[in-house]
Specification:
Layout (H helix, E strand, L loop, with lengths): L1 E8 L5 E8 L9 E10 L1 H7 L16 E9 L9 E5 L14 E4 L4 E3 L6 H24 L6 E3 L5 H12 L4 E5 L5 H7 L3 E4 L18 E4 L3 H8 L7 E4 L13 H6 L2 E4 L7 H14 L2 H7 E4 L4 H9 L6 E5 L3
Helix pairs in contact: 1-9, 2-3, 2-7
Bound molecules: NADPH dihydro-nicotinamide-adenine-dinucleotide phosphate (NDP).
């Protein structure tokens, strides 16, 4: 028997989440069974745990879109028992049971070996949000980051915290946008050199082009803020669009693309090919200072998850929630 957070739907279509006991034969099919050490709380997890059920494709369901742990049993020669692994993406925690359990069974192709220098706890302090932040930084680097500070929106959240720490470690001036002024010291400790109040970028676009300010941007917010930021980019600079915490509509004009050559780069962490995932995890192990990673961690256990799911949807989680599934 092992413990898991199960989300189920009642006859009225309402979802309920509770910690329950499961047996190994209840796990979905897969090549590799993992003894999970840690999982995390991402925005998508909030949607999956929450009352609407969000992105969940089958009930009962074990959410948790990422996990890190140790291989227990394997039909795949790449992953012998004892091997440390990390998983993000592939609709795990949405269409296939995920990481909010002491055991998970998945396809071997979805796993990545834990990179040298990272513990399973550190890997989940990074988690899907941090992995995506690294993909965003790599996409900006591929296009070339221009002079001027790099803007990070939703900075006190998961993607934003990791993006801030990585960009600062790489030597960029980081302007962190937050709606929570009380997180300013936290963001400065991660390496932000400038704090921008959310209100400053929340107004709808009045002029399609403003002063050329930002040398690049990692955007976790989308919506009106992204539209505003597009008109403030340096000539030829790029925005890596990661999320929509502030809304899915983009009330923008084409002018920043036409007259400033701005690039809007879409970042998807879910379907990344194996080689890209390995490359991004190697960069994380190299470019994310562990003391700053430690500063982002909010520890949690399985029974905390229903509340934490609601908190992340309300934009109230700071940094990264690391769930010790065995505590
Ligand atoms: P978090 O909730 O941890 O962070 C989001 C942050 O956005 C909040 O902390 C808050 O930052 C800010 N925010 C929240 N609501 C608003 C609002 N209404 N207006 C402006 N800012 C707001 O989530 P994550 O960092 O985990 O994820 C961020 C986004 O990225 C989500 O939309 C998520 O779905 C997406 N995502 C996409 C991935 C991909 O593959 N493309 C992978 C992972 C995440 P502050 O308090 O500092 O203002």
């Amino acid at each position: 028997m092992f413990k898991a957070l199960i989300v189920d739907k009642d006859e009225a279509g309402k979802t309920h989440a509770a910690v329950q006991d499961l047996t190994l034969d209840q796990l979905p099919a897969g090549d590799v069974t993992v003894a999970v050490d840690y999982s995390t709380v991402n925005y998508k997890d909030g949607l999956c745990i929450g009352p609407g059920g969000g992105l969940v494709r089958n009930y009962p369901h074990v959410p948790g879109i990422d996990f890190a742990g140790v291989v227990d049993a394997s039909d795949d020669p790449r992953y012998a028992p004892g091997y440390k692994v990390v998983l993000t993406g592939w609709r795990v925690g949405e269409a296939h049971w995920g990481g909010y359990a002491q055991k998970a069974r998945v396809k071997a192709d979805w796993l990545v070996p834990l990179p040298d220098g990272l513990s399973t706890r550190q890997a989940m302090a990074v988690g899907t949000a941090g992995f995506t932040a690294m993909l965003a930084v790599m996409a900006l680097e591929d296009q070339g980051i221009k002079d001027g500070p790099v803007l990070v929106t939703g900075a006190a959240g998961g993607v934003g915290s990791v993006a801030t720490a990585i960009l600062a470690k790489l030597g960029y001036q980081v302007a962190a946008v937050t709606g929570r002024p009380e997180t300013a010291d936290y963001l400065r400790a991660l390496g932000a050199t400038q704090i921008v109040a959310r209100e400053e970028l929340s107004e709808t676009v009045k002029r399609p082009l403003e002063g050329e300010t930002w040398g690049g941007c990692v955007d976790a917010v989308g919506g009106a803020m992204l539209a505003r930021v597009l008109g403030q980019m340096q000539y030829g600079a790029s925005v890596a669009a990661v999320g929509l915490a502030g809304g899915a509509n983009l009330p923008a004009t084409v002018i920043p693309f036409l007259l400033r050559g701005v690039n809007l780069l879409g970042i998807d962490s879910v379907m990344q090919p194996y080689d890209n995932r390995v490359r991004a995890w190697a960069r994380i192990a190299k470019d994310l200072p562990t003391d700053r990673l430690e500063a982002m961690i909010q520890p949690a256990v399985l029974s905390d998850l229903p509340q934490l799911g609601a908190d992340i949807l309300a934009g109230q989680v700071k940094g990264r929630v690391v769930v010790d599934v065995n505590a």
